[in-house]
Every structure is written in C-alpha cells, then in structure tokens.
Design a protein that fits this description.
Strand 5 and strand 6 form a beta hairpin. It is built from ten helices and 17 strands. It has helices at 19-32, 94-101, 111-118, 120-128, 150-157, 183-191, 236-240, 254-270, 305-312, 317-326, and strands at 6-13, 38-46, 49-53, 59-61, 69-71, 74-76, 80-83, 137-141, 161-165, 175-177, 196-201, 206-214, 219-221, 225-228, 245-247, 277-283, 289-295.
C-alpha cells in the first residue's frame, strides 16, 4: 500500500519587526521541501489572524482548537509544524507551548530552550555556568533604569559597548556606544523594542556564524560563515539589505574551525536543542572563541546563512529538511 503523505505546515509571520523576513524564509522553505513526499502548506500567523495559503491563491482560516483547516469542504489536519517565525511568538516558546498542548510535533527546541535563547541576557548567564565564553553584560529593566548609572556601566562593561534589546529576535534597537553620553539615548532606543535592555562589552575580532542540527542517527555541524561588514556592526541593513560580505567557509584556520564546531555541538547538547540552530561567535586575534547568540529559527531564504552552509557542506537542503522532519517520527 502506498505510504500516505505527511502534511506539513510552514508556520511564518509573527508579531515582531521581522515579519517580512519570516515570510521570505517561508517561501525559501516551501521551495526546499520535498513535495513528492509531503503535502506542504504555508500558515501565516499575525496576532489573532491565523490562516493557511491555499494553492489556488485563496486563504482558509486555521481552527486554533486543533490547528486544522478546511480545503474544498474537506478537513485537513497537520502532522508537523515547521516554525520559521523570527521573534514572538515563534522564537520565545509561546508557539511551542501551543503545539505541545495540541500534541503536534514541531521543528524547534522546546518551550524552555526557546524562552531562554530568546532572552540573550538569561542565555549568556546560563551558558557561562557551563564554561562557555560570553561577553560581559548587565541588564536594565524598564522602570528600574536608575538602579544602574552611566559610571557603573563604563566601569563594569567598558567602552565601546553595545546596547540592545534583551528579548528581540533581530537587529532592531541596537546601538554601538562609544562614550558615556551616548548611553541614555541608546537605552531609550532599545527600550522601544523590549522592556529589558542588555548592555554588553564590545568584543574585537572576526565574526562567524555556524549552523548545526542533530538527529538520532547523526550530528552535523555545518561550515562556518564569516561575516564582514563595513557598517559599525552586523546591523539590520548589513543582515538584510546586502551591506555585508558573507564568506562560507570562513577564513579561519583548521584548529579554530574544529574548536568552534566542538563548542557548537556542545551548546546544542547543553540546551537539548531540536532542528537546525545557528550560533554566532566572535573570534579574537588570540584565538579566544566567545559566543554572541543562539538562533533557534535561523533565516531560510535562498541567500540565508544556513542554506549557504548546507551547500558548502555538499549536502542537499531538501534531504536535510526530510531528515529533520522524520527524526520526530521514528
């Protein structure tokens, strides 16, 4: 008897400033999935508007009781959700909690890991306790700004430093601060994106980004991408508007590349990750490897880091996605 096709939802959109990037990732994923093997639908989630895009160009509402919908009068129930929302609710554990409640397998890590990796400050403190090198940082909460003064920040963190939203998926609201006078406006700017703001020491060095995924059969760490930008840092324009040079594999010597791969695999295991993650690092001139952040729903447009790295590894992205989906079913 012919094996029935699994039905997959590519869940995209979300309520963050990265809505458009998520929609682009969904298109990328849709093009990568094996349509011979799976029935694939794009499901857009924004606020309370949840709908599926049908092949005839129309949309159908999603029943949030069980994440089903009707197509031509027939009920369609999903077997699996591939989450590609950048920011809330797909990258902070909210969507994962919903899928746990309705018992639908999904592509990312669990609720706690998503919530923790979304909060950069919490993640840094957690991984530091496992011996992972991270930048010095402190947290400023909305309403409690007076608890930390500018002199203290300069003394603890040093200048230049970065001021960024602690809980936002992307590159909005980030400032590179070069002196004390720039702190207050930078903190205000970051607070427009998040109630928690992180002040982080500046790390000099080569920035790299590296993907990893594991299944019951194998552990794969992809070749790293080196990020070279003429901008002050890898900001939104550098990331999404092409103001950056991305070199895959990164121009780092083998010994460092091996160490980065080892640390990446270790972090994946510490956090009990699931699916594809991407970790960003800074490598100092002396060869010190410091983790910047863990991205559990990395961009999946054709030009994003992960598809680039999968290609550089000589792998086929369609096969990789099939491995990730099937890993939940056997």
């Amino acid at each position: 008897m012919k094996q029935l096709k699994r039905t997959i939802a590519i869940v995209c959109g979300g309520d963050s400033a990265e809505y458009n990037v998520s929609m682009r990732s969904a298109q990328g994923l849709y093009s990568f999935f094996d349509k011979e093997r799976y029935n694939v639908y794009v499901v857009s989630v924004k606020g309370m508007d949840w709908h599926v895009n049908l092949n005839d160009g129309t949309t159908a509402p999603i029943d949030r009781n069980d994440f089903s919908f009707k197509e031509n009068g027939k009920l369609v129930v999903f077997d699996y959700a591939y989450i590609t929302i950048h920011g809330t609710p797909g990258e902070n554990g909210i969507m994962q909690g919903y899928f746990e409640l309705i018992h639908l397998p999904y592509s990312t890590s669990g609720v706690l890991v998503e919530a923790m990796t979304f909060d950069k400050f919490v993640l840094n403190q957690y991984l530091r306790s496992y011996g992972i090198s991270v930048a010095e940082s402190l947290l400023i909460r909305k309403g409690y700004e007076e608890l930390v003064n500018d002199d203290e920040i300069e003394k603890c963190i040093g200048m230049p430093c970065f001021v960024k939203p602690a809980t936002d998926g992307s590159s909005f609201g980030i400032s590179k601060v070069k002196n004390k006078d720039q702190l207050a406006p930078a903190i205000r700017k970051a607070m427009m994106e998040s109630d928690d703001v992180m002040v982080e020491s500046f790390l000099e060095g080569t920035e790299i980004s590296i993907g990893c995924y594991k299944t019951k059969e194998k552990s794969v760490v992809l070749p790293a991408t080196e990020v070279v930008t003429k901008n002050e840092f890898f900001d939104y324009d550098a990331k999404y508007n092409g103001q950056v040079e991305e070199i895959t594999p990164a121009r780092i010597d083998k010994e460092i590349a091996d160490r980065v791969a080892q640390i990446t695999s270790h972090i994946y295991d510490i956090l009990h990750c699931n699916g594809i993650i991407r970790i960003d690092y800074i490598i100092s001139k002396e060869g010190k490897i410091s983790m910047l952040e863990v991205n559990t729903t990395p961009g999946m447009t054709a030009t994003s880091f992960i598809p680039q790295q999968i290609k550089a590894a000589g792998l086929n992205i369609t096969d990789v996605l099939t491995e990730i989906v099937e890993n939940q079913f056997h």
